[in-house]
Design goal:
By secondary structure, the protein is of the alpha/beta class. The protein has one domain: TIM Barrel, CATH 3.20.20. Strands 1, 2, 3, 4, 5, 6 and 7 form a seven-stranded mixed β-sheet that branches. It is globular. The two termini are 21 Å apart.
Length: 204
């Protein structure tokens, strides 16, 4: 497992938080442990504003019961590497306000500490991703990584974000800088294989 991370297929879970069905089930921390036990190394977390400044995880505007973002992060932390030492990728679909993005950043730093990788390893070429071997027992965040004060609506125009929730309003959404600093992989559109091969070597 010494090739760049991009050379591997990664066992990935979509809508990981769903414990039952996609319409009226629950957002449940145990769903993440189930995915990790099954061998997933990338899981998805859909984040929205919750009451009292506490971000929640839910399935868009459905009847799925939400769960606190912090509960999920703290619940999965001891179970990340029980089935594999290789890195876990948290795919954060961010629908939160600036204030609650800041709170998510605080939680992620507090819970994962130095296991959270936010920059390229100093011994590596920045155009090539590290290998799974280099990233053992580490956590990586995937999301929108942009300089302040670029807005998500601008990213929609240039095609760098592909959220498919029809109810998501991209207007005037800004990525909070403390949150953006934690993101290792940024979301980009996939056009066609040859274009990606020629132009998208590595984006951090």
């Amino acid at each position: 497992m010494t090739r760049p991370l991009s050379d591997y297929y990664i066992n990935t879970s979509h809508n990981t938080y769903l414990f039952n069905n996609q319409i009226s089930g629950d957002s449940n921390p145990e769903a993440y442990n189930r995915a990790l036990r099954a061998g997933c190394r990338a899981v998805e977390i859909d984040c929205y504003d919750g009451a009292n400044g506490r971000p929640i995880v839910k399935h868009g505007y459905t009847l799925v019961k939400p769960c606190l973002f912090e509960s999920i992060i703290r619940f999965i932390e001891p179970n990340l590497f029980k089935t594999s030492p290789y890195p876990v990728i948290l795919d954060l679909e961010n629908h939160c306000s600036i204030e609650q993005q800041h709170e998510m950043a605080r939680i992620l730093r507090q819970v994962f500490g130095d296991r959270l990788i936010t920059e390229f390893l100093p011994t590596h070429d920045s155009s090539v991703l590290p290998s799974p071997e280099d990233l053992k027992y580490k956590v990586l965040i995937r999301g929108v990584k942009i300089p302040r004060p670029t807005t998500i609506s601008k990213l929609f125009e240039i095609g760098e974000i592909d959220y498919d929730n029809n109810f998501f309003n991209p207007q005037s959404k800004i990525i909070e800088h403390h949150f953006a600093e934690l993101i290792y992989f940024q979301n980009v559109s996939y056009l066609q294989y040859q274009n990606e091969k020629d132009n998208c070597k590595c984006k951090n």
